[in-house]
Fold:
Amino acid sequence: MAAVFLLVCVSLIPSLASAAPIKAYVAEFAVTPTDNGSLKKTLQTLLASRIASESVLPVASTQEAEVVVQGNYTQLGKVFSLDVVAKQGERTLTTVFEQGESQDELIPALSRIAGKLKTGIAQNFQAAKAPAAVQAPAPVVQAPLGAGAQQQQGEPGIIGSTLWVSQRLPNAQEGIAIASEGPQGREYFVAEAHALRLYRQEKTLKLLAEVQLTKRGKVIAIDTLGPDQAGKPRVFVTIIDGEAPSSQIFSYQDGKLKLVAEKLPYMFRAIALDGGPLKMYAQEMSLTDDFYGDLYEIAEHDGKIEKVKAIKLPRWANIYNYNSVPGPDGKSYPVVTSPDGYLIIYSDAGEELWRSSERFGGSETYFQREDDVSIKRTFEKMRWRFLDQRVYTTKEGDVIVPQNAGFFVIGNSRSYSKYSVFGFNWTGSSLEERWRTKQSQNYLADFVFKPATHELVLLEVVQKEGVFSKGGSAVRVMKLD
Structure:
């Protein structure tokens, strides 16, 4: 009997040693009564960190996950209840709950939930059966950007090849815009919080000009329409000085970046609505609203701003998260990223037609404003407002958005560590994913999509700013082939 028992144990060792941890995605908690979004994200992060073990591995998105964990937090008077369920597809693996009579009991209750979850997931998880060794035809992926969009063998839907990568740039950069494209090479405006530079893409990035900006203000975005009528590259620099925009316009002339206008009370962004011509837009800020009033198409003459056309924005929309996409019926549909990062498609009447099931965008660029309400809720005098990532659209109904990911996202503390860029197509009823780029192990600070050449110009932060380092960045050019 002893020999048989030993033989059985030895036969189990390979299977036990090869067992990989179960990949689990913890979704944001549903909170009742609703809060400003901080509690549901905090609970999500705390639970994800507590279920991490040899048997369960938290992941950053549902695409990577084998198990999805969803939770509800309910507050009734002084009593709270935490109810959590773990699912493998449509199959429920385990449900657990804890309750308490004060906020001091919240974290201990969450720890007990995590312990029960790990046990329930490990006991009830069913590994997928190995597929039969049958030669199946390769799946056909519809090309979203013309016949040149091909999938890589073994990675359905993943496209993109790197054409060029710059050298390491000092400091963590925040914004990029294409200044011009001429016979000498493509030129880029690149900005960090207090500086603006112009580079030319050669074997490496060649610095052509730079200007140091005021330390009082902070650059949050840059945009350009390319060279002006005189052929000089011109850039709109959105600067928040104190609690209001104090933006500037620069022109590259005679080897220098010359100031054209300053103290402009607008935030700027270049947008190609419905994939049409690129135009410059502006939005204002009020004493109470971070993004006030309509979106305005503008014309600029010698530094003077003229409002040409007003656009009424749907709910949640602002100058940094708005675009519009054409549908199969020929109509234009506003597309917006919500404050929580979900993609939303609206009708022209402002009715919500579709919302994504996962979050996109994600940015570490922010500005601060004084907020009495924020003091009562978060005990912080200043309200943090994070910018949204760009949303590009094409005439064919494609929507291009990035997705930054990383688990260290708690309240105002953000540290994204990887990203992909996604391509969707608006069918008239939903956004359907057509492709995505391979995940990169860097944070995407900003990007430009070139529809004519099917290129992405990506501004990556390759090293975060820290106590002993100011960080580092790089520019990558990717072909969506």
Q: What stands out?
A: The longest strand covers residues 67-76. The chain has a mean pLDDT of 86. Helices lie at 2-18, 38-51, 106-124, 372-378.
